[in-house]
């Protein structure tokens, strides 16, 4: 009877729950304040909080992960701050150091703590990070799927090192405004990473596109705005056959009237979104080839494509069966007859962005409205179209 009485006095509290149960409770706290206060209860609860942290970014970050991943406000994240945080949160899968401008190559040594578990790493505007830092990333983070190096001082050497180290995992890479990266680095990336899905190389002036030749068929997204692309480079970008989104806007003087004909050769038959804004020299032959050879095309930006004339516009109307959005802002040679060609075709067109077309008469526009009441006319000029690259960076 005494033993029974003693057992009745034993009380169970939350402290007696195993760690996996406490983790289960923590993961189901919806309120961010509850997340923060959980670790204040005791050292054990703090450890539960630490091992359940999967994402981390800072208030200065340019890359939004998820709200719960934000750290406390910090004016300038330095090497010491980063070291303390990464020794605490060793189970991170997503890390954004974007906007942490005081970090340098040696700062990245702290990546050895969460390194093997990291799936995505954003280093946008980390101006002090160069090839040495990327070599450190390559050493500690072999399972990276997403890497954003916007405005970093990385060269072909660092890119090749990273590509070889993460060749089995790497899928999304942002190299925008990396002036030291050339076709050699792009080739190293696309040849080593057979699962590569998306690459951003916008404003990389040393890239012509030839580094993409014989790239993986998994490559579906390429943003090459304002690059010095050549016709052979354009053919290289689409050579894998998987391209669905292609942005080559701002390719002014390197393509020529017929330089985009390869896009319509059938290799890019899966293309859905094409941005040719400010490709001023592209002519009718290229437009006709693309219209015929890309049957799935749903959005096409031809704003400021001044050399597209009646023959090109008629081809768009005749062959672009799937087109839903078309941008023709400030096209000098879009005339009444060209608009008529669009009006008579493009049966699935729903939105037409059009303004500043000096050769169009008000009568032609009114006739378009009368006959195509299913199409919404919008005057605003859109520079960025297609899916947000962040959709590809969920890691």
From TrEMBL:
> Superkingdom of the source?
Eukaryota
> Per the database record, which ranges form the F-box/LRR-repeat protein 15-like leucin rich repeat domain?
88-209
Q: Which Gene3D superfamilies match?
A: Ribonuclease Inhibitor (3.80.10.10)
Cited Pfam families: DUF7885, LRR_6
What InterPro entries does this protein map onto?
A: FBXL15_LRR (IPR057207), Leu-rich_rpt (IPR001611), Leu-rich_rpt_Cys-con_subtyp (IPR006553), LRR_dom_sf (IPR032675)
Task: Extract the CDD domains matched here.
Answer: F-box_AtTIR1-like
Q: Which PANTHER family match?
A: F-BOX_LRR-REPEAT PROTEIN 12, PARTNER OF PAIRED, ISOFORM B-RELATED
Q: What is this protein called?
A: F-box/LRR-repeat protein 15-like leucin rich repeat domain-containing protein
What is this protein's gene name?
A05p050530.1_BraROA
